[in-house]
Amino acid sequence: MTRRILTAAVLLLLPAVPLRAADAPAGTKELQGTWEAVASVRDGKDQPPDKGGMIVAMIEGDALTLKIGDQTRTATLKVDATKTPPTMDVLMEDGPQKGKTMKAIYQIKDDELKVCHGEPGADRPTEISSKEGSGLTVVTFKRVKK
C-alpha cells in the first residue's frame, strides 16, 4: 500500500521537475516531450486507435511514461541515435512486462515519430515495417504541442 502511494506521489511530482532538452541524455533530445499515437499496425494489420485505449507517451530524459487508456506504465529508455536506423531499448519498470526489455528502432521527422518493435526479448527489427506474421508493431505518434 505504501509503495503504491509513493509511486503515485512520484508520478504526480514528475511534472513539477522541469527537464530541459539540454539535460536529456545524448541521442534523446529530439524525442523529448509528449507524443500521441495516431496509428498502429501489428503483424501487417491496422489496429483500431481505440483498441486498449488511446496511447500517450511522455519522454523526459531517459524516462518513458506510457498512458494506455486508464493505465500508466513506466520504463527507462536507452537510445542510440548514431545507428542507422536509430535504436531504442525500453526497459519496463512495472506492469506484466516488468524487468523485460523491448528492442526497437525509430524514425523521427518533424513532429512525427514512428517506433517499430517486437515482443520483449525478441530480436531488434531492422526496418520500420510490420508485415503479416512478423510479430512486429509499428506505432506512429504525433508530437503534442504545448
Instruction: Tell me how many strands there are.
Output: 9
Side-by-side strand order of the widest sheet = 1-3-4-5-6-7-8-9
Number of folding domains?
1
The topology string of helices and strands comes to HEEEEEEEEE
CATH arch. level architecture: Beta Barrel
Regarding CATH, which class? Mainly Beta
How many strands, what sense, and barrel or not for the largest sheet? 8 strands, antiparallel, barrel
The helix content, as a percent range, equals: under 10%
Please tell me the overall pLDDT.
82
Sheet/helix structural class = mainly beta
Keywords:
146 residues; Lipocalin; disordered N terminus; 8% helix; 42% strand; globular; mainly beta
Write a structural description.
The chain has 146 residues and is mainly beta. The protein has one domain: Lipocalin. The protein has 1 helix and 9 strands. It has one helix spanning 2-13; strands at residues 33-42, 45-46, 55-60, 63-68, 71-80, 87-92, 101-109, 112-117, 137-143. The chain has an 8-stranded antiparallel beta barrel with strand order 1-3-4-5-6-7-8-9. A hairpin with an 8-residue loop joins strand 6 and strand 7 (101-109).
Give a quick summary of the entry.
The chain has one helix and nine strands, in the order H-E-E-E-E-E-E-E-E-E. The protein is mostly beta strands and 146 residues long. The termini are far apart.
Compile the SSE list and pairings.
Elements: H1 2-13, E1 33-42, E2 45-46, E3 55-60, E4 63-68, E5 71-80, E6 87-92, E7 101-109, E8 112-117, E9 137-143
Antiparallel strand pairs: 1-2, 1-3, 1-9, 3-4, 4-5, 5-6, 6-7, 7-8, 8-9
